[in-house]
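Anyone? Bumping this.
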Amino acid sequence: MTIVADVKPRHGAGLKRLLTKMGQDAAGNDVVPLGELSTAHFARMLMLDPTKDLDGNPLPAHFLYMSDIDGSVEEHLEELVDIAPDGLDQVLRHCEGYPARGKVARDDRLEFLSAHAVKAGAEYVNTVGRTLAQVRDEAHLRAEIQDFLDSGDFEGVEPEAARDAIRRFVQAREDLRWAIEPAPSPGPAQRAAELVQALGFPLELLALAPVIVPALPVWALLLRLHELRDKARTIPPSDTHDRELAALEDFTAQNPFSAVGERKPGLTRLVTAASILRLVDYGARYIFNNGSLTGVKTIHFARWVFLDDTRRMIFASSYDGSLESYMDDFINQVWWGLNAVFSNGVGFPRTSWLVFGGSQNEQPFKDYLRRHEVPTQVWYSAYDELTAINIDNNAQIRAGLSGEMSREETEAWLLLL
Amino acid sequence: MAATPVSLEVQDVQGLVASAYGHLPHGCFVLLEIADATKARAWLGELAGDVTTAAGRVEGESINVALTPSGLEKLGVPRSALGAFSLEFQDGMTESSRSRVLGDTGDSAPEYWAWGSPDTASIDLILLLYASTQQELAGMLTRRADLGGTGLREVHHLDARRDEREHFGFHDGISQPVIEGFRTGHARDTIKTGEFVLGYPNEYGQFTARPLLEHGEDPGHLLPRDAQGSGRPDLGRNGTYLVLRQLAQDVSGFWTHLHGVAQSSGNGYGDATALAARMVGRWPGGAPLVLSPDRDDPALSDANDFAYHQTDQLGLRCPIGAHLRRAHPRDSLDPNPGSDSSVAIDRMHRLLRRGRLYGPRVDPDDAPGAPDDRQRGLQFMCLCANLSRQFEFIQHTWVNNPKFDGLYEDSDPLLGPRGRAFTIQARPTRRRVTNLPAFVQVRGGAYFFLPGIRAMRWLASLSGGPS
């Protein structure tokens, strides 16, 4: 979920100071200890500085709260409000429309948060349906099996016998016994509902085909004209900006990424950006929903959200490894997708027919990303020492504790450990 | 993207780019501080005529020179030009975010370094001397490092000996990329010129950021002009970045520990040598584990024509976390391991390795039990055009990364920090060495710029600086 609120004039510095302090211990700080959230995989709070739009109109500072959660938004907000009522007041008092002083009722807090919730233009989840509890439990399971293997000698043991020994170990442990049952999978009714949902968007497109198909060539030419006319001079980030961001990176196996850009003006770019996000959202939900975004396996969650009446957009993600490797993955594996989305941003390296060029210009592209990246003052991960690949491997380890396996399958499963 | 190969301008490139000077086994690196800029410039101008270039092999001795940002500044390089060097170089190896990225923490933290840290004497310049005999080197040192009248002061000097085997006893330096436009070699190992020398197209078919000067800043027309056609003088062209790190090796601790592990684990790991080979990825003689998993094979001592995916996707021959597999994963990583796209990723993260040894050798057989006198190790040196994408990426994302290629809590078994695990993939299931101590400690380090010959002449033509 995403919450966006304007910051009151002259409150920016105070809010930023507060957030920076909280960010030193996002999970346990005494303002809003995000580690107490029971369904949040990731959460972040950040402040965007006040600025001007492309026409020179002032844009106020924004406060953003984003979280990647299991279950309903309502329950999540209630939990947030209950774990840190006073802390939330401390943060939100800097925002427009929040009482500057005095006691705030629980319902008013909830109402403020709900009223400022915005829908993402597109969302990506590494593996749809995997809960925080499952991630944590399966990580614990794997660690315990590792210790068990360290304590024994399996040299020369037949694969079936080795698997049986591990299963007996898990079965015997009260805290692990749950793992002998496979993780719940969607039942037939749920799968049918999913299919209906998945078909909705293609059917919609089909119905609109009489309009879309003739419009496509016109749109393509208009876009091409824009591409040729756009200024595409990329400016490297300032050294100070670069150092400020570097100081927040590479403490754990994961990093946050938050970047804000201005959408190129005009209807063509608005239509392009909105349509591409719709496609990305669909693709992320129904196609790339199981561990890999067209080959990139290091992104846990990502989202794109329009800000300021679609004049700006924020991209926020939580990923494994360093920014350098993240950007290289982008350039080498999802360059076309990146171009389609980000080339609607002012200053992106020049693209050709939406998907070509652009991010293929290594240094200008890296400069563009870094220049638009903003400090994520508070970033919380519920499992900052697990990569998405680790999490997926843990799920496979658990899955292999149940069911029949051939000798080959057993050998392959043992090598996951 | 595929451009016609360009030829390297060998006359303008320092010889270290072309050669590790394997034929000159004796060497010394002299770290210097500039006390008098005018005299130092005169010295550098003279040296520009004497340094070894990539143009030919010098039999007797070789000399090269590189500078730090403070050295460039003292010689009078304008602020704007200094700011055009990469941020990694400007900030230096010991900047705190960088220490985290490089793993220079714990006892490897810069505060414990013998040189190169903010607490030790400032380093402006490094003189790299190579000779075929100890006497020749002594002669060179007398002539070259006689600093009277040069405006330079010696801060520290480092022995740098070339040997077939590094201190743990392993044949080293086997795999090196071939620079396109300079030599011909196996297509797989031939990497674009711009990955190792500034001012040439890189693996992306583009030019790596480099210090271009303003139009008026080279009135004498000493520098080459920007190959991209802006007309600006290119201070970077034919130069590159040089990384130097002094890595102390606890040889005795290494072998003592491995003998202990091998003895306590029955026949699980094989003997200490077999365990060490699994940590390295090659046998002491050089044979790669992928080609010869069970024993050292002298016939394979320089074998380099292999990949991982087809033969050893699961790491049953060469463990996934072995040092070699991390530092140069070949075709083993995403996307599509075993394919050209996997190899393409590897090609964007290559280094020219120019490392040497220091300190007396300890025989591996005598090593267990001997006290560690911290007197030996590796002068790790490499050259690359993009410190961030090449050296720092390899160090952070591959070598030091506990999550490398699907692992969980392993770090590089040779270079990694204390207390991590080393997993040996095996049937029926993996074996694991836990609580592996650190055998290597960083003792010093810095980033340098290895200029082209014309860039040296331009530097010598500047004015200002300390006197």
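Late reply, but here is one note on the structure posted above: The mean pLDDT of chain B is 92.
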